Structures are given as structure tokens and as C-alpha cells.
Amino acid sequence: MKQSEALTISIGVLGGVDVFLTATVILVPVWVTFTAWASFFIVGGGSRGFVKSVVCNITGIIIAALSLWAIDLLGGSPLTAAICVGIGSAAMVQASKLPFTHGITPAIVLGFSQTVGTVAATGLPVTAGLPNNPVFIAIAAMILGAIFGYLSEAWGKAMTTSPSPSPQ
To answer: How far apart are CA 43 and CA 134, in angstroms?
Structure first.
């Protein structure tokens, strides 16, 4: 089977499993898992891509948490939010220069954005206690999404046949 068809099957089936699990067993935002899944492929896939994606996503989550915490501490006005997010955005670009993030700014931004979305969806501050802390929810969802990315790639590869060499 061609790779595109194999990935169609693996991603299609596992996408359904992801939706079911996040709605019933692992209560994290499904959009975050899908974003992390895409991040896994964006950074190149495989074992290295899994690690790169998770590290970059968590870096973005930490920067978002610090930015949101600063917004809360400073009163939460639109101007304060703009300044804190601007500083956070600059921090993401600088963080992409670190050896452990491998220079992949988009994967850092994905972690940041999904944290902001998780905070908005839960209505809880980044300082909320466990198990409902939106930062830890975002981390769990990003890791779960990277796992789905890894599994879908592995399953897709297992179903992919290599072309037969042409006779000479």
C-alpha cells in the first residue's frame, strides 16, 4: 500500500480513538492533542521528532504559563496582556535558539497557543490546583498528541509497501 493511503488509515482510525479517549477516559482538550499530533509531523516524525515536538511544545507551554501568570499579577488589562504576550512571543523566538529546542519556533508557538486555549476553555488560571490545572492539562494533551503522532506514523510505515525494483 502507498504511504499516503497507509497514513490515511492509521490517522483516520487513531483520530477516532483520540476523540473517544479524550471524551471519555483522558479528559484533555482534543484540539490540543490534534495540534501536538501535527507538531510531531512538522518536526520530522520518528523518535527524534517525538522528543523534539514534546520538548518544544512544553517550552511554549511554560512561556505561556509565565505570560498568563504575569497578566494576572499585573491586573489583566488589555494593555498589560498585549505587553506580556509580546514579551512571551519574543521569548519563544529566543527559546528556539536553545540546544534542547532544536530551533523549531513553530512547535514552541503551538505549545503556547494551546495553553492559552486550554486556559480559556477551562476558565481557570495557570495557578489552579491539580488535577484541573490548565498548564498540566495542556502538557498531558500535548504528550498524548505526540504519542498518537508516533503511533500513526509507525502503523502507516508498517502498512506501506516498498516499490518493487524494475527489471533491467
So the answer is: 25
DSSP string, 114-150: HHHHHHHHHT--TTPPTTS-HHHHHHHHHHHHHHHHH
Residues of the chain scoring pLDDT < 50: none
- Is the model's pTM score more than 0.85? yes
d(CA 138, CA 136): 5
Q: Compute the distance between CA of residue 12 and CA of residue 19 in angstroms, rounded to an integer.
A: 11
Rounded Cα distance between 82 and 88, Å, is 10
pLDDT of residue 101: 83
Q: Round to whole Å and give the CA distance between 110 and 42.
A: 11
Nine-digit cell string for 151: 503511533
Q: How many CB atoms lie within 10 A of CB 94?
A: 13
